[in-house]
Design a protein that fits this description.
The complex is a heterodimer of chains A (397) and B (218). Chain A is of the alpha/beta class. Chain A is built from 13 helices and 17 strands. The relative contact order of chain A is 0.15. The chains are: A alpha/beta (397), B alpha+beta (218).
Chain lengths: 397, 218
Amino acid sequence: MRALTWHGTHDVRVDTVPDPEIINPRDAILKITSTAICGSDLHLYDGVIPGVVPGDVLGHEFMGEVVETGKDSTLKKGQRVVVPFTISCGGCFHCQIKQYSACENSNPAEKQDMSATLYGHPMAALFGYSHLTGGYSGGQAEYVRVPFSDVGPIVIPDHLEDEQVLFLSDILPTGWMGAENADIQPDDTVAVWGCGPVGLFAIQSAIIMGASKVIAIDHYPHRLELAKQLGAEVINFKTTDVREALMEMSGGIGVDAVIDAVGMEAHGFAVDNMLDMVKQTIGIGADRAAALKQAILAVRPGGRVSIPGVYGGMTDKFPLGALMEKGLQVKSGQTHVQRYTKPLLEKIEDGTIDTTFLISHRLPLEDAARGYKNFREEQDSWTKVVLKPEVEKGETV
Amino acid sequence: MKNNREIGIAGSVAAAGVALGAVAFGAFLSRRHDGGNDDAPKIARRKNQGEHTLVGRTVTIRKPAAELYAYWRDFGNLPEFMENVEQITKQGGTKGRANWTIKAPAGTTVDLKTEITDDVENERIAWASLEGSDIETTGEVTFTEAPGDRGTRVSLRIEYDARGGAIGRGIAKAFLREPEVQARHDLKRFKMLMETGEIATSAHRKSETRKAKQQENG
C-alpha cells in the first residue's frame, strides 16, 4: 500500500510499504477514506519529538471502512468508523475511570521504558506518533491496523459526510476537553492562545459551554478572522501587548480561565523563548512555552489554566511563583478521546457543532509531503489539510 | 591584588563545596550500607544486598486473585508472557515439578528444573530450582487484594545465583539478559493478557511479531 513515512526533519515521503495484517483477536483493518494532518504532526516533521524512526508511518486523525476483523472485534465489515488517536484497551484501571490516554495496556511492554523514564509513568499508545507512544503505524495511508477495535472506533451513520465527522478522531474532542478543563462558568471571560484547529474548537466549545466572553490570541490574520466568525474577540500579539489588553478587556480583574492551544513550538519574541528556540534547534531540549508562560501571568488569581497544547519534555524559566502565589488550578493531558466521541457526534448530528469550516485544503494522499510543507510554512491560509487516499495524484479533490 | 583576592574567595568557596560534597557522599554511603529502615519493600533498595541477585516488581491487575492464581499455577502457561522462556514442561507429581528451557544469547539455552516449595491457593506460589539445573534460583509470586474494585496486586520476586560464586553470577547475569528489565516486561505482559486477553504489539504484519521471530530463531 501507499503511506506517508517519516525519514527525518522536514523529510516525509509517500512510499510503498507492506499492507497491515490482523495480529491480535480484537484488531480490525480499515481502508482509509479520509485522513488529516494534525498540528502535532508538525512537531514530528520539525524533529522535536524523540523516538521517531525513519520509515514510520505517520497520521493519527483518520476514518475509513472496516475491511477485516479479528475474532473478538465487535465491528462488522463495511461499517464506516472514526478512530480515536489514543489507543485504549477499555479494561485497565485508567480506562475504567475514563482516563483513556493513560491506558496501561496499549503501549507494548518493551516500549514503555522510555516514557516511564521521561514522565515517571508509561502512557497510552497513540497512532503514528513515535515509539515513545508505542510505535504503531499511523493512518496517513491506504490501510491501517486498529488494535482494541471494540473500544475506540465509533460507527458513523450514512447520512453524515466524512468531513463532518473526521475531526472526532482528535482535534474536536481535544478542543472540547481543553474548554472542559478550564471549568467554564456562565459569567467567565476565557482567553485562548492559538487559533489553530484545536484553539478554534476550544473557542467554539467554550461558547457552547456558556462563557460570556472568549478572547482569541494569535498573529495570523486569517486564523483570527475564523475565531471572530465563531464569536470570539481577538488579539494580535504582534501588534498588541497581550497582558495589558486582557486586563482591560476583563475590567482590570484578569481573565477567569486561560487555554494554551499552542504547545511546545510557540512563536514569541521574549528572550527566554528565543533561547529555548535555539536549544530546541540544536537538540538540547527545552520546550518553548511562551504562550503558557504568558497565560499564567494573564489569568486572574484563583483562575484556571487548561493546557491542550502538546509538550514533550522540559522547559526553562517557568513562572512557578505566579502559579503558586496566585493559587491557580492546572489541568492538562492527551485527550481521553473515547469519553467524547459519542456526545460530540450527537452535537454534530443536531447541528450544534460544525467542523467543516476549518478545512482549507483537500489533497490526494500522494501529495501529502506538499501538504506538510505548506501546512507548516503557510500557517495563515493552510488551516487544515485533509488527505484522500482514493484520489490519484494530480486529480483535484 | 584584586584578582588575587577574587581567586582567594573562589578558592575557599570551592574548598567548602568539596568539603560539603564529601560529607554528603559519606552520608550517602553510610545510608546505602545500613540497608534502610523504612517500609519500602526490599526490592526498592538502591542496591541489592548479599550474594544473590534479587529482581522483581508489583503490578495491579483488574481481575480476581483466584483467576490470576489459577493461570499462573499452570506453569505451562508462563511462556505465553515470559519472553525469554521458550518452554516449560510439567513433570507431574504433588510438588509440581517442571523443566524450563530459557533462551540465552548466541542461540544457546539454559535448562532449569524446578519444584513448588510453597503453594497457598489464591495467595502465593513459590518455587526453587533442583539439582541438575544450570542456575540456582528461587521465585515467588503473591496475590493480594487491591483496595476497592482495583483488582489484585501481583508481586513477582526472583532470586538467582549461579554455581561458582562471583564468576558464576557473572555468567548467570549474562545468560539471563537483563533479568530486571525482563521481569518488569514479563509482568506487564501478564497484566495485558489477563486484562485484555491479548499482548499489545505495534507489529504491522504477523512476521514482525515476537512469536514469529521466536519460531524463526528456534
